[in-house]
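hey team, just a heads up i'm posting the complex here instead of the shared drive bc the drive is being weird again. everything in one block, sequence lines first with there labels, then the predicted structure for the whole assembly after. its two chains so it's a bit long, scroll down
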Amino acid sequence: MSRKIEVCLTPALLHLYDISNSIVVVIDVLRATSSITYGIDNGAKAIIPVAQVEDCLNFVDSGYLLAAERNGEVVEGYDFGNSPFSYTKEKVNGKTIVLTTTNGTKALHMARENAYQVVIGSFLNLTALSNWLISQDKNVLLLCAGWKDKFNLEDTLFAGAVVNLLRKNFNHFDDSCVAAEDMFLLAQADLRAYLYKSSHSHRLAQLNIEDDVQFCLKIDICEAIPVLEGERLVSLNYKK
Amino acid sequence: MSRKIEVCLTPALLHLYDISNSIVVVIDVLRATSSITYGIDNGAKAIIPVAQVEDCLNFVDSGYLLAAERNGEVVEGYDFGNSPFSYTKEKVNGKTIVLTTTNGTKALHMARENAYQVVIGSFLNLTALSNWLISQDKNVLLLCAGWKDKFNLEDTLFAGAVVNLLRKNFNHFDDSCVAAEDMFLLAQADLRAYLYKSSHSHRLAQLNIEDDVQFCLKIDICEAIPVLEGERLVSLNYKK
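-- predicted structure starts here --
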């Protein structure tokens, strides 16, 4: 059987792909999809991604936790932003969270228009996600959220990690798969060190989120796979 | 002084960049920009890139050579396509050529709208081009033509080769620079072997253009730098 993996390097290229028979994995490693994975793994009932900070206001009296981040900082008046440390069991177990982020939410909303299914990937659930993708009878598109529609290293590295695990079970790979996998193989011995090459390195340092970055690069501390159901990200029910 | 290099991985992302103070290098290694470099180096008076095969028809009685390629093949009735072997001294010296190609021409036309200056790059003129870019007081955007607006390996490898030569003289690099340079460093020992990883590999084999591919990967056999002047690519007048 012919099975295809593609890597879409930024949401601005998504329109070039036919994803009607593909599972789309949305990737925004620093930090939205890491926090979503961690939150769902810690028992959050649902996470509702919204595109604009203003959209969160519709949920003010809902009893939901409100999370908003713009340009890497928590928006004033909100419960939290997208630091994974805000998504611990104590804080999110049984709760619903409304989340807006700079790049991740946008990618999610674009993907759900046309994809067969949309799930969330991060280093935190790398192996669980990859094994599940292998077990499905679908093509896979790895959608990097990037930075303001431009290519970024961290999301591409994660896409490469998935390609590397899926390689034996698929037989069509596009050029961005090849590039992403080779970058991951080059970087895997020390992902953090590799990311110091990034043009975002300076920006990340200014935001004082080094602990977050370190956490988001932890591999396989979660088994949950967040899946989009309607407008909500919930825990995918699969055989672990 | 602050000098910036950026790599735009496909023309579909060009709108994200401010190129008003940048020299844009258009890259379509297989085979348009290699053939253009070789043709200009072999004394072609000018090469006129046009977007559509039909646009060539305006030049039928001009005495110009007409070159048209779609999906890698010469269009019926035209003098030649974009095999570099059609651009030898015997064939092109003193001549003007009207050229349309699948990806390269499109990238050229998009770049010239906003760029400070537009030049042509290929492995054939790698060092000459890079030395000239260093000598200019401008930012550089390396524009990969890609394949139908998607990322491809060969154009990115060349972009990485340029980044590698320019690195010491520039101080701002975006994430796609980092990725392109690392891919080039990984591939440089045998560029042809690396390209067998490409999803285009099968397509290239079908087109029976292995000799062209080998030729387009030759490094530094030309000193000419084609530059866009109005609608024409001509030889840049610079101190060699």
